């Protein structure tokens, strides 16, 4: 039964991006970051501008039983707080939305990040029947007289009610809802999968999943946060400028 509770692979979106997914885990690192390809052909880490005022996030809990939505929201808020603690980035909760993340509509999301607990049939990510969630980022790239660069401009985390329902609520080691939320928020921050089962970014949730973010997850998140420095995003860049 535990083996059935698989986390689906990340992927999605910027077409260039997902070709790179997963390859770097072989390097022996306990974290993997996404690479954005720039116009010159060089690459840079795909990350949020950690100096933006706040990363605004909303939830769509329409797929979760109404009476349990406050508890689910609380778990998500705890997960966001844990990401903040490691990355130093500021997040601002902006309430609920009916927005359903789909492969083609992420640019028009009503917040920087939407966390959606929804019926997977209403979206078009490639879930399997064992999927627990799906998450990722979109980034913009630019080039011109002011140089070139990239910055993440959207993140999303989809949680699948039928899978989440089978897990113990809250945080802790092993098969917990909190670990799924942290895993998907890791994707929404820019982390990719790793091959180490000791990390939360291992693609499968197992009875041996760590209690929250493990050392490698923290190392990766640190490289995505304020310690990595501000990204100077030209004002002409808007969120339709995807690669
Ligand atoms: Zn994943």
Structural write-up:
With 243 residues, the chain is α/β, with parallel strands linked by helices. It has a single domain, classed as 3-Layer(aba) Sandwich (Collagenase (Catalytic Domain)). The protein is built from 5 helices and 9 strands; from the N terminus they run αββββαββββααβα. Strands 5-4-6-8-7 form a 5-stranded mixed sheet. The longest helix has 19 residues. The N terminus is likely disordered. Bound molecules: zinc ion (ZN). The site of zinc ion has 6 residues, from helix 4. Zinc ion binds next to helix 4.
Summarize the structure.
This protein is α/β, with parallel strands linked by helices. The chain has helices at residues 15-20, 69-87, 161-164, 177-189, 215-224; strands spanning 32-33, 35-37, 43-45, 55-60, 91-96, 113-117, 133-142, 149-159, 191-192. The longest helix is centred in the first third of the chain and has 19 residues, at 69-87.
Low-confidence stretches: 1-26
Largest sheet: number of strands, sense, barrel closure: 5 strands, mixed
Query: What is the name of the CATH superfamily?
Result: Collagenase (Catalytic Domain)
Report the radius of gyration as a whole number of Å: 17 Å
Q: Helix/strand/pairing class, anyone?
A: alpha/beta
Order of helices and strands: HEEEEHEEEEHHEH
CATH architecture: 3-Layer(aba) Sandwich
Protein name: Peptidase metallopeptidase domain-containing protein
Note the topology.
Blueprint: H1 15-20, E1 32-33, E2 35-37, E3 43-45, E4 55-60, H2 69-87, E5 91-96, E6 113-117, E7 133-142, E8 149-159, H3 161-164, H4 177-189, E9 191-192, H5 215-224
Helix pairs in contact: 2-4
Bound molecules: zinc ion.
The site of zinc ion has 6 residues, from helix 4.
